[in-house]
């Protein structure tokens, strides 16, 4: 599942291609939207909200999409060949005079009134890359269930929106605890510090190749994620991997004390 920084970049690409321009092509290839025609309307903006994308269309409409594990939006110049997968995987096509945005394998695609956006994103916690970022509220929500494993709490978009499996593992490494450590077991100052670190990491990476280590050598962009059985960049101990909520999770058994599966 894409992380918040990836969604931010996708929104920026879509906004640059569509915002302020009239739609000359509209093809929504999901059954309940098959008869919808947005041609002639202008795209007002494309806004990320956590891991959700909100394309606001003239007339008080919002096209809401969520990529989950496999979805993707690609933007092509007029006349450019589409390269994002076979045609049968296309779920949405929005075209202007200069660009075409094509949504592939979108598991969530729906059209709603802009005034009703809260029906799909109102449950989210503070957006790590949004204007509503509130570290105090994010901290309070993380601490509201002190018995919950930290990795699960970080992934819960109701606590803070934008963290996926990569940042979950990396943030637990930076906190020097395993992802199965209860939130309440962290020292009092560590949870707000962790929320702040999450914000800084996503903000730093939204315009560049993702990096959490500060090391810019091949294969060393991340401390633990995807590094099972490879040496920890900090201590050399082999990194371990185990599922948490059915997602692969990585940690260093030496740098990160605490409970494990």
Automatic annotation (TrEMBL):
Pfam families: Fapy_DNA_glyco (PF01149), H2TH (PF06831), zf-FPG_IleRS (PF06827). Residues 223-257 form the FPG-type domain. It catalyses: 2'-deoxyribonucleotide-(2'-deoxyribose 5'-phosphate)-2'-deoxyribonucleotide-DNA = a 3'-end 2'-deoxyribonucleotide-(2,3-dehydro-2,3-deoxyribose 5'-phosphate)-DNA + a 5'-end 5'-phospho-2'-deoxyribonucleoside-DNA + H(+). Its EC number is 4.2.99.18. Keywords: DNA damage, DNA repair, DNA-binding, Glycosidase, Hydrolase, Lyase, Metal-binding, Multifunctional enzyme, Zinc, Zinc-finger. Residues 2-130 form the Formamidopyrimidine-DNA glycosylase catalytic domain. This is DNA-(apurinic or apyrimidinic site) lyase. Belongs to the FPG family. Its cofactor is Zn(2+). Coiled coil: none annotated.
């Amino acid at each position: 599942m894409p992380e918040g920084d990836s969604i931010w970049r996708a929104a920026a690409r879509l906004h640059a291609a569509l915002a302020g321009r009239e739609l000359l092509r509209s093809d929504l290839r999901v059954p309940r939207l098959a008869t919808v025609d947005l041609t002639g309307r202008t795209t007002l903006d494309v806004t990320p909200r956590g891991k959700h994308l909100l394309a606001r269309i003239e007339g008080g409409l919002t096209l809401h999409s969520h990529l989950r594990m496999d979805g993707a939006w690609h933007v092509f110049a007029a006349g450019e060949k589409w390269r994002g997968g076979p045609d049968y995987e296309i779920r949405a096509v929005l075209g202007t005079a200069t660009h075409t945005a094509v949504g592939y394998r979108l598991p969530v695609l729906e059209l709603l009134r802009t005034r009703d956006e809260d029906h799909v994103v109102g449950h989210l916690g503070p957006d790590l890359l949004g204007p509503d970022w509130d570290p105090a509220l994010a901290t309070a929500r993380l601490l509201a269930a002190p018995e919950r494993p930290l990795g699960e709490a970080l992934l819960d978009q109701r606590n803070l929106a934008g963290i996926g499996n990569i940042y979950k593992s990396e943030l637990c490494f930076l906190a020097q605890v395993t992802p199965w450590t209860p939130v309440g077991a962290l020292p009092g100052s560590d949870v707000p510090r962790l929320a702040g670190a999450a914000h800084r990491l996503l903000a730093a990476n939204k315009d560049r190749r993702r990096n959490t280590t500060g090391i810019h050598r091949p294969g060393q962009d991340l401390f633990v994620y995807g590094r099972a059985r490879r040496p920890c960049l900090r201590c050399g101990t082999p990194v371990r991997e185990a599922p948490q909520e059915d997602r692969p999770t990585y940690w260093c058994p030496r740098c990160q004390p605490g409970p494990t599966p």
